[in-house]
Amino acid sequence: MILHARNQIKRNNFFIDLLVRCTFSNPACRNLSYHYPLDSSTLRGTSIGCQETKSPDLNKCSNFDVLIAKVRAASSVDEIFYSLSHDHACSAVQVSHSIVDVLLHRFRDDWKSALGVFRWAASRTGYKPLPESYDIMVDILGHAKRLAGAGEWEDAVRAFDDLGTFGLEKNTESMNLLLDTLCKENKVEQARAIFLELKSHIQPNAHTFNIFIHGWCKINRVDEAHWTIQEMKGYGCRPCVISYSIIIQSYCRQSSFHKVYELLDDMEAQGCPPNVVTYTTIMYSLAKSDEFEEALQIPERMKSVGCKPDTLFYNALIHTMGRANQLLEAVQVLEMEMPKHGVVPNTSTYNSMIAMFCHHGEQQKAINVLKDMENSPFCKPDAQSYYPLLKSCFKIGKTDSWLSSLLDDMVNKHHISLDISTYTLLIHGLCRANKCEWAYLLFEEMIGQDITPRYQTCRLLLDEMNQKNMYDATERIEAFIKQMKSS
């Protein structure tokens, strides 16, 4: 009985996920801007009276009450569907768009009931749900956070077979959605088995094989990804830059850079040159592996094949130069090379510069970059812009006016809310600087904003409060720690 229930939950979760993703892929359901015509407060409660529905199709309140009663009596999507489908009174109700609209609104906070009603309505002869109804259903499922991953692959096949119930065609696109859902849940072998079953009557396309390439790489089976590229060619589909770049990214994670270069040469030989995203990935990965000399050769290689850099590439280049202690060159990239190529810096560009200067003890230069960003027409500072500067305050011992000035600009000038990382940095730093009273005020501020401090932060602050004999604060922190443990 328990095993059956678990399988049912898995099947429902997969079915919901597939329904949502197929609905979004349906051209008739894209780019909809549907707004609920009724206020949610009107729709909550035990029932909706006939005078509230305003629907000419619900001319008998008892019919609507019968539908509600049948739904409420069932406990699962399948039970709701069966109960509505096999009840004589429910079968007598003429399903219309207005009825479905009211029912979905009635059960907008109950995804199982909404999905059961939707399946029942879609199964009725002569009725086809509107795209707007699909959109409401997707919204209900999304708010319910039921977009779960795939369960057993046999359940996936059953859910795929049931797509016709919702008026969704079993074609290449819906097959790809099924395979993609499974591969993202690391069920690549199961996805492969399904593909072998479906390929005889559903034609795969290039995206089908890219899904498998990504799936094999995700589970570190790059050889199968290479084999998939060959299979792709056998089906008459030409591998694109995405196909190769997925494998390159996998090699980068393994620091197998000799294989990266081999694949780059193969891409150029196949008439599929790498793009800026490919080169950005390679350069960033080389820098992460401390291969700075090789990383800084990537821009020249990229230039030699006529690939133009973008903002993300320059961000990675500045980051690499910073780690390679080439501060002057990084400044030249921001101030000269980017404007020369018409590439606009974003917040991350400036943040990389600020972090670079702070790391090398050039706090005033970091402040100058922050001021440049404040005056930029393209972007403004965020919490990450200030994090290295705040960290520097504790590193060099400026925990008075300079720290206060930074926080004041951050909160009052730019209206930036402190996140948990910033609060943690401040509380730990202030405790080490023997300013635990200020640290405690920040602790209270965190709680007041529903940001839960980390346990280590609570313990550190508790020890400091005990040493200062601040008994009220100690009791408050102990109560909070107890609450954390109980929850």
From TrEMBL:
<feature type="repeat" description="PPR">
    <location>
        <begin position="310"/>
        <end position="345"/>
    </location>
</feature>
<feature type="repeat" description="PPR">
    <location>
        <begin position="205"/>
        <end position="239"/>
    </location>
</feature>
<comment type="similarity">
    <text>Belongs to the PPR family. P subfamily.</text>
</comment>
<dbReference type="InterPro" id="IPR002885">
    <property type="entry name" value="PPR_rpt"/>
</dbReference>
<feature type="repeat" description="PPR">
    <location>
        <begin position="240"/>
        <end position="274"/>
    </location>
</feature>
<keyword id="KW-0677">Repeat</keyword>
<feature type="repeat" description="PPR">
    <location>
        <begin position="275"/>
        <end position="309"/>
    </location>
</feature>
<dbReference type="Pfam" id="PF12854">
    <property type="entry name" value="PPR_1"/>
</dbReference>
<feature type="repeat" description="PPR">
    <location>
        <begin position="419"/>
        <end position="453"/>
    </location>
</feature>
<dbReference type="InterPro" id="IPR011990">
    <property type="entry name" value="TPR-like_helical_dom_sf"/>
</dbReference>
<dbReference type="Pfam" id="PF13041">
    <property type="entry name" value="PPR_2"/>
</dbReference>
<dbReference type="GO" id="GO:0003729">
    <property type="term" value="F:mRNA binding"/>
</dbReference>
<feature type="repeat" description="PPR">
    <location>
        <begin position="346"/>
        <end position="380"/>
    </location>
</feature>
<protein>
    <submittedName>
        <fullName>Tetratricopeptide repeat (TPR)-like superfamily protein</fullName>
    </submittedName>
</protein>
